Amino acid sequence: MPYAHITGWGMSIPEPVLTNEDLAKMVDTNDEWIRDRTGIRERRIAREDQFTSTLAVEAGIKALQAANLAPTELDLIIVASSSPEYIFPATACIVQDQIGAAKAGAFDLLAACSGFIYATNMAAQSIRSGSIKNALVIGSETLSRFVNWKDRSTCILFGDGAGAFVLQASERPGGVLSAVMHSDGSGAESLTLLGGGARYPATETTLAEGKHYIQMDGKAVFRFATRVMGSATKEALALAGLKTEDVDWIIPHQANFRIIETAAKYLKMPLEKFVINVDRYGNTSTASIPIAAVEAFEKGKLKSGDKVVFVGFGAGLTWGALVAEWTGPIPAKKQAHPEQYRLFARLRSWARRAIRFLEGFLSRREL
Ligand code: COA
């Protein structure tokens, strides 16, 4: 049975910064309240010309570069997102086209902020089963488009960004060691974005009722999150045959510093073992775990052979944890140039569009 190694990682963060002071000019809040209750100082907001796919493509290409893998080698692309570009087509298909992953299957996965853990597990299991060899998993968000900037209880929390992993099959033991995924739909109402789906398609009424904004019962989500972070971590560790003492790093979903602190206490682990960057990016939903992993690697914290737990929770309600042995950089066999593949992808995409146009033109003439 092949092992599923994390061989590439990349992130993309929009440049525009929205600080707590900026927010204090928009709603009745202040820097002290936001830092005390959440640990957040600032977050990034996508420019008007940046979309969920834009950030996803950037993060995905960086992950391919790190893995030294050509996009044409990919068998599968999964984009986990709470703010997908459309209901359909899948954001993953836009990514597939833009990076030139000619032979990859592509789909979106919706498990809210737990999405990256679910998606990484799905990709890892496909590799373990032998059905695929190379996968690109991306968490990407432009949640700022769904935030009610007049609602101080939610607008302070969220930010935009993307992160990605490349997973590859190898005979060498390691990589993804275990994972657990859970859900409890009885808590669905505590975190929602109801508008724009089939039940509440966009109408003047749904707009007037604010159904296209994120709505949240903050206290209920807080209670749920503090309960499941520790339990999911323990469960996944037990499946991997590991104890908390064996863990080098916990990379949690970055929603709130106090939630992470409570999980650390529950697990009786020092906070120093938790990778935390919620202060600079806020809650970037599916992107928060890979962004934190990329930063931990770039800062020299995360090293080859380290045992890591990725753990998250979100709307649904969903939660999960995944244990991995961090593979780290692998020696390059052949040089891949994903930027060149991107150019090739554009040409290929135009050619395919031209062929479809010609086919349509000819079939109309035949009729
Ligand atoms: N600035 C200032 N005051 C604010 C505020 C803000 N941005 N937001 C709410 N308040 C006020 C409330 O109106 C309330 O005032 P009141 O006591 O006069 O009624 C008071 O602060 C306390 O509000 P409350 O909602 O009880 O605060 P809290 O301690 O529960 O913190 C959250 C709110 C949202 C920070 C916290 O509940 C949380 O982090 N929940 C989890 C959210 C989450 O992680 N969601 C994503 C999951 S993936």
Short account of what is shown:
This protein has 367 residues and is of the alpha/beta class. It has twelve helices and 13 strands. The chain has a single domain (3-325), classed as Thiolase/Chalcone synthase (Peroxisomal Thiolase, Chain A, domain 1), CATH 3.40.47.
Explain what you see.
The protein is α/β, with parallel strands linked by helices. It has a single domain (3-325), classed as Peroxisomal Thiolase, Chain A, domain 1 (3-Layer(aba) Sandwich). Helix content is 38%, strand content 21%. It is built from twelve helices and 13 strands. The strands form four sheets. Strands 1-7-6-4-5 form a five-stranded mixed beta sheet, with helices on both faces. Strand 4, helix 4 and strand 5 (105-109) form a beta-alpha-beta unit. The relative contact order is 0.18. The protein binds coenzyme A.
CATH class: Alpha Beta
Which kinds of small molecule does this entry bind, naming each only once?
coenzyme A
Instruction: Give me the number of helical elements.
Output: 12
The string of secondary-structure elements, in order, is EEHHEHEHEHEHEEEHEHEHHHEEH
User: Numbering strands along the chain, what is their spatial order in the largest sheet?
Assistant: 1-7-6-4-5
**Shape summary:** globular
How far apart are the first and last residues' alpha carbons, in Å?
Answer: 53 Å
- Tell me the Rg in angstroms: 21 Å
Instruction: Give me the CATH superfamily.
Output: Thiolase/Chalcone synthase
pLDDT below 50 for ≥5 consecutive residues: which ranges? Answer: none
CATH architecture: 3-Layer(aba) Sandwich
Please indicate the count of domains: 1
Whole-number average pLDDT? 95
Largest sheet: 5 strands, mixed
Q: Examine the coordinates and then state which fold CATH places here, giving the name of the CATH topology.
A: Peroxisomal Thiolase, Chain A, domain 1
Q: Give the amount of beta strand, in percent.
A: 15-25%
Q: Which secondary-structure class do the elements indicate?
A: alpha/beta
Query: What's the count of strands?
Result: 13
Measured as a percent range, the helix fraction is 25-40%
